[in-house]
Structure formats: C-alpha cells, structure tokens
Amino acid sequence: MFDVPLKDIVDLVLEVKTGALSFEAANPRHEHEWRIWKEVRLPPGKVLMPGLIAHSTNIVEHPELVAERLMRFADCVGRDSLMAGTDCGFSQSPLAGRVHRSIMWAKLRALAEGAAIASKRLWS
Fold first, then answer.
1. How far is CA 12 from CA 5, 69, 75, in A?
2. Cα–Cα distance between 124 and 23 in angstroms, integer?
3. Sign of torsion, CA 89 90 94 96?
4. Contact status, residue 49 vs residue 75, Cβ threshold 8 Å
5. Model's pTM, two decimal places?
6. What kind and span of H or E run contains 82?
7. For 105-123, how does the pLDDT look when each residue is reduced to its tens digit (9 = 90+)?
C-alpha cells in the first residue's frame, strides 16, 4: 500500500551507476509493472534483474510461471539484458526468516528451473 510505483521512479532508477537493476516483480503489488519496460528504454550496458520469486509468501512458484515472467521481460528488453533474481532476501535478519528454509530452497529451485526453461526457449 505504501510502496512507490516503479513508473514514478523509473527515471531515477535508470540514472543509478550500476550494471544491474534488481527490483520486485513477483510480489503481487508489483507484478503488473513489467509493462513499463515496453515503453522505457534500458540504457546500453544495463541489465534488468527482476525478482521472479516472491519473498513474501509461502507459496512456491511453478517453474513455468518463473519462465513466463522471465519471457515477459525478455520481450521488452531482450535476452542479453536480463538476469533472473529474487524479489528480496528471505530473512529480515539471521534469526528472523520470512519463510521456512524448506520453502526458501524450493523457491530457489523453482527459480533455477524456470530460468533454465526460459533460457532454452530464448537461446534455441
């Protein structure tokens, strides 16, 4: 509810001197924002690293959903300007995890499997 919409800050974000831009894209509050990249040009040398798995839920994403999310971004910025990421970390501190470790590892496995599916589709 208090998150800043990406459309309101994308110009500032693109000015950051970094190689990759990591941002939440699986969180239900932000998943729709992928469409911004249809209109906003990614500067040369920058890579998008959208979060494809959410840290805020115990539901493990299906690898096909991860691949679908990755393909959306690839259609917008190209396969060479894209890297799979997570929405955020899974812990607020070493002793305060947001999800159980078994869920965390299952989500990371789904991320890897989904990225492999998308890579096969994009590179074959």
1. 12, 24, 23
2. 27
3. positive
4. no
5. 0.91
6. none
7. 999 999 999 999 999 999 9
Nearest CA among 69, 102, 100 for reference residue 87: 69
Question: How do 47-50 and 20-23 pair as beta strands?
Answer: parallel
**Eight-state DSSP code of residue 95:** T
| Average confidence score pLDDT of the chain | 92
The one-letter code for the residue type at 113 is E
Q: Both tokens of residue 14? A: 């693109």
CA 40 to each of CA 7, 66, 69: distance values in angstroms, whole numbers, following the listed order: 9, 22, 18
The two three-digit tokens of residue 120, written as one number: 């096969």
8 residue type, one letter: D
Q: How far is CA 6 from CA 37, 66, 92, in A?
A: 10, 20, 23
Distance, in Å, from the CA atom of 90 to the CA atom of 54, rounded to the nearest integer, reads 9
The answer to whether the beta carbons of residues 30 and 80 sit under 8 Å apart is no
Question: How many C-beta atoms surround the C-beta of residue 22 within 10 A?
Answer: 16
